[in-house]
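Table 4 source record.
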Amino acid sequence: MKRTLIAGAVAALISLPALAAQVPAGTKLLPSAQQTFVRNIGTEPASIDPQMVEESAGSDIVNDLFEGLYTLDGDGKLQAAGALGYELDDTGTIYTFKLRPDAKWSNGEPVTAADYVYGWQRAADPKNASNYAWFIELTGVANASEVVQGKKSPDALGIKALDDHTLQVTLKAPVPFFLKTLSHYTTFPAPKATIEKFGHEWVKPGNIVSNGAFALKEWTPNERLIAERNPHYWDNEHTVLNKVIYLEIVSDTAAYNRYRASELHYTTYPLEQYQQIKRQSPDELVSAPMLATYYYVFNTQRKPFDDVRVRKALSLAIDRDTITEKILGQGQLSAFSLTPPSVDGFELKRPASELMSKEARIKQAKALLAEAGYGPQNPLDVDILYNTNEGHKKIALAISSMWKHNLGVKAELNNMEWKTMVSALNEGDFGVSRYSWNGDYNDASTFLDIMTSSSSANSGKWFNKAYDALLAKAHDAKDPAERNRLYQQAEALIDEEAPIAPVYFYVKSRLLKPFVKGYPYHNPQDLVYAKDLYLTAQ
């Protein structure tokens, strides 16, 4: 006996006329030819392949070009997209999705269940070396671990097409947050014929085939990408924007100047401009909490960071409040945990290090470092890696100063362009590096899972069997209170072992032109879908 489940968000959506831009009656829009949205993505994306992308710049584009079973509304709640609804069997492990029959690729061909199967299989296939293969494991789909580890072939993955518009996913055990993972790009469909024809070049203009509201038309490396409205998109009639331009402006100062010159609609800005903007242009300031954590990661496979005492000492010696209040000052919260306190269904138990006074932290840090053999006669030298950006540099300078002042540690700063830094992290060619994690969905597991031994996002290569066991138990726990308890234990282990040094929890802090409407102010995952936006006449 199957029970038909259409989650509240999904049920509501089916009755709605559209998922794209919702323009209130009487709104005066800019002419169609002027419906062009220009945003700064900060850096050259390492990839815009849904199964390969691994950073914000790439994901910003992918979420406009492609679409999966679900998307998110302006409040961050699930909305049906490629799926119309689903059935769940009595075991809670077999999901049968009915797909939208009018969904098409940008070449006019239908999007089928087989395209989803192919997308999931290529993400999990170790031959493709996807840095997000672990995400397929996270969904709980049957045989995912064995496929990712190369023990079983990709076709053993628990996903199959029953027919062109019916997709079945079998989980190894019920996963409470499974549906939340399906708005993530790793689970998007993939055009097999195009990928097999062009290989890694399939995402280049002229080759690429996508199924989202926009299609890629131009890509000038280290400068810009341009996407235009996809006439084959199933909800094209409700899309208002005709073009999206993604500018790759690394410098916040340069981006700010271009914004003021009206060359940009949406961008980051220099930290020092915040107070002035708040006073002079508050209607252009976007400021809201988001599911993201800024932290320093230690390479636990390299001396001296293989010593927990060194890692713990360096973490304790960071004055988070000074960074959030004096350097950032936009409402960021000091972080002593990996998981932000605003995550759905998670009650964060304050870590032991957070409960200590600033003086007690420094005292313990000095003692730990001395115990590890470092002091005035044998000072510790470290390298801090960060990607080129004024904000990252300011934080690195502040932390290096704290380590010098509090512990006598000498820190050398090393900056790289984003793609180069990603390579260094993946290859383990670093000592300490700045990092951040934006939640892929609204659950504590999206943060805590990146520290498991099997996660490619575990750049510091911290391997802890007790931690892995906690996350595995939490993954399968049906009782929310039990899951919460296990997550708290996992956070306590991170605090104790210090494979990372959490620094702060992000706030979304951007500049947005007031005539850009449809912006998702209440989406904590910071997902901005261009299909939801429109430009009004000023």
